[in-house]
Amino acid sequence: MTNKNKNKRSRSENRVEGRSASRSAPASQAPRRRGLLDSIFAPRVAGATSMPRIRTSLARGAVTVASTPILTVSAIAIVAIEWLGALALGFEGPFTLFVTALALPPVGTSFDATLSTALFGLRGGFFAILGFVALRAVVQALLVASIVEVLRSSPPGRWTMVRTLRTLPVTLAISLAGVGLLTLASLLGPLLGPAFALLIQMGALVGGVYLLSFAPVIAADEGRRIPDSLGRSVRAARMAGSGNLTLAAIYVVASIAVLVVPGKPGSELGVNPLVAAWVIVLVTNLLHLAMQATVAFRYLSVADDVPEGAPKRQPAPRARGRR
Fold first, then answer.
1. What is the pLDDT of residues 43-87, one digit of tens each?
2. 78 contact partners, CB below 8 Å, separation of at least 6
3. Interior/surface letters 284-300, b for 16+ CB within 10 angstroms, e for the rest
4. Are 313 and 30 within 8 A, CB to CB?
5. How far apart, in whole angstroms, are the C-alpha atoms of residue 51 and residue 306?
6. Other C-beta atoms within 10 Å of 248: how many?
């Protein structure tokens, strides 16, 4: 082969390699879409956060509920209706189980599981819990939509129903995720021994509240779909210095403590709770609603600071075949 032919062959190979590199470059440089697991295990958002302090957030949540009669009356009415519905299905107590009737998932999901098992047993309870989960999703969507309206300085009205409808798929997904977390914890607990069973159960509850509690607020305020709401909730929860994990742990521990404390009114079996039992249950559920308002206030305060996920990768155009 002469030098002239070698040069021609070298230039031809360089052109082929150049075309291959130019074709593969856009695909390699295109941003990869981050899924929910990527959001969970992604590094924390750097920098300080403008999320309010826990004490300030709790105070704002309590004031939001206390200063809005429709929220207070709605919470009381929902608990009373659920109690009457449970009685109609044959529930005989204890009434104190209802202290978590309006709790955030997955703490509230554990109430659904316990109530469905008490009414229908282990076999029937597995299917009945889906109905209770759906009911919780509707109630939470309505309450979150109303809270967002109040925090946005708009009285609940017709627009609240629009927010409720677009929030419902997210609250349903969170409740189902709560069922999955509790089921997984109940399976892992016996395998690791009784010493770790309670720890795993508490960890599942704290993790669910920590990572997913912002999602209904995001759907109600921004109209995002389930994957976007869940991913954005995880990113907001993991903002550095926000204290969201501490708040979730305090909430879960306090909720369980109120549920299991012995000797309180309503702990006995029966269908006629004392006035003191009603006071404890209603006040506790109003505090759960205040916690929901706290979560909404904290997210709305930092909504503009939460980073967006990576854009969706566009599929490469298909090459047209020769005719």
1. 455 555 678 899 999 999 999 999 999 999 999 999 999 999 988
2. 101, 102, 139
3. bbbbbbbbbbbbbbbbb
4. yes
5. 10
6. 24
229-278 pLDDT, tens per residue? 999 999 999 888 778 999 999 999 999 888 887 767 777 776 788 888 89
Say if residue 21 is exposed, middle or buried (CB neighbours under 10 Å; 0-12, 13-18, 19+): exposed
Residue 322 has a CB neighbour count (10 Å cut-off) of: 4
- In degrees rounded to 5, what are phi and psi of residue 45? -70, 125
CA distance 260 to 111: 13
Category of 33 on φ-ψ map: left (φ > 0), alpha (ψ -120 to 50) or beta:
beta
Radius of gyration of the chain (CA): 26
In 3D space, the residue among 98, 106, 109, 107 whose CA is nearest the CA of residue 75 turns out to be 98
Q: Which residue has the tokens 């107590």?
A: 93
Q: What is the pTM of this model?
A: 0.79
Place of tokens 């070698």: 6
Residue 241 sits at φ, ψ, to 5 deg, of 75, 10
Q: How far apart are CA 196 and CA 250, in angstroms?
A: 20
